[in-house]
Amino acid sequence: MLTELLERIFSRHKKENSRASAKRRLQIVLAHDRTDLSPAVVDKMRQEILEVVSRYVEIDPEESEFSLESDQRTTALIANLPIRKVKDSKSEEANNAGTTNAAAPLNAASEEVLELSMDSTELPVSTELSAEELSVATVLPDPPQTLKPIDRTSDENSTTTPKTPQPSSHENLPPNPPQTP
Amino acid sequence: MSRIIVVTSGKGGVGKTTTTANLGMALAQRGHKVAVIDADFGLRNLDLLLGLENRIVYTAVEVLAGECRLDQALVRDKRQPNLALLPAAQNRTKDAVTPDQMKKLVGALTKAFHFVLIDCPAGIEMGFQNAITPAREAIVVTTPEVAAVRDADRVVGLLEANDVKRMYLVINRLKPAMVEQDMMMSVKDVQDILAIPLLGVVPDDERVVVSTNRGEPLVLGADSTSLAATAFGNIVRRLEGEKVPFLDLNPPPEDFFSRIRRFFQGRKS
Fold it and tell me: Within a 10 A sphere around the Cβ of B38, how many other Cβ atoms?
């Protein structure tokens, strides 16, 4: 009794009141109702967005938030992806592109990745597999496959460029796997 | 031009029929000619809430089948001659009528009435389609509960998709004392979520039960001074375009001792 009372005095704001949780839960569920997106699709979208973003910057998968929110009858996709650091591999790859491709602007980084994976011998299999794997990854927890192309390119990168890009592109790898359920 | 308003909610039991009965009666009291239509085929109740259940001879189904004229099916309220009810058939299902037939019925009613209120059945199936197709405006009734608000949101989306662009929100059965203690969503909370213009707030009132027991809408009976009846009256005035301030539903401030007592009893949240 006394402890309960003390608890109430000192930790009154700990538990969200039911009014607030009703509102919060409704906002989330309605965002999903309104867009009519299945959780699987949302998750796939999340993975793909993370994949694209982590190509450019290094993000913290644990701190990343990804949600649908509704306000005034419009639904927004909110992705909060804290950036750990901007990948220096971008400039590295740009340099790399400089060697293979004469005029390579900044966004060459992504193109470079694509190009390199296309150069690889088992191209048709690998790209198709990765596309399929993505949709499967939403159900099955074996996502590393989805990153295979990038992985390979980074390896190829490391062969053509000095040692430095390797750690950064390998740090880039972890963001995805832990994210998948 | 007459106004055709559907009263809908998605979820059952939030007070659609009570709202229709009271708004219909209050509009009639203010001199408008009002027809209320029960679109809940198979589960009709509007007749019961209006106390007209013993005077039904024909229903909308007979009118559509050409077995009687429309004015033969209309039940005129003896207490309030401006009000008439078009009953639904009780022995049929929602498939007994089509949206086009409802449109025809309502179209015929607009020739003689200023207001046509359609009491929509719960759900979003055929009966819902029937009820909203003829409507030009909609009153979305909800209560400050998660299930009711979620369903109301779904209905708002469906109304938009069906070109019923003018929608108003009525929040029914609000318990101000619970809102005060953060145990119930407030008017603003619900409004934030649904984001359609607020037409009125009706406080939870035991007298609503008593009035339905008797078949006398609140606004008609001896309880017409109750807070809920005043709220319905205000809704009608807002429908007419008048700017009426919302009722102050806040409970009288708690005295010191009850606050202390509540603190020791613990917050049920």
Answer: 29
Task: With H, G, I as helix, E, B as strand and everything else as coil, classify residue A132.
Answer: helix
Superfamily of segment(s) B3-265: P-loop containing nucleotide triphosphate hydrolases (3.40.50.300)
Of the pLDDT bands very low, low, confident and very high (cuts 50, 70, 90), residue A5 is low
Higher-pLDDT residue of B251, B108:
B108
Contact present, B179 and B185 (Cβ < 8 Å):
yes
Name the band, by pLDDT with cuts 50, 70 and 90, for residue B189: very high
- pLDDT for A8: 63
Strand locations in B33-120 (E) = 34-38, 75-76, 83-86, 115-119
- Every domain of chain A and the residues it spans: 19-83, 88-179
Residues A85, A87: Cα–Cα separation, whole Å: 6
Q: Do A5 and B185 touch (CB under 8 A)?
A: no
Report the complex ipTM. Answer: 0.82
| Region at B241 (left for phi over 0; alpha for psi -120 to 50; beta for the rest) | left
Per CB-CB distance under 8 Å, the chain B contacts of A26 are 146, 149-150, 193
In A, minimum Cα distance to B193 occurs at: A27
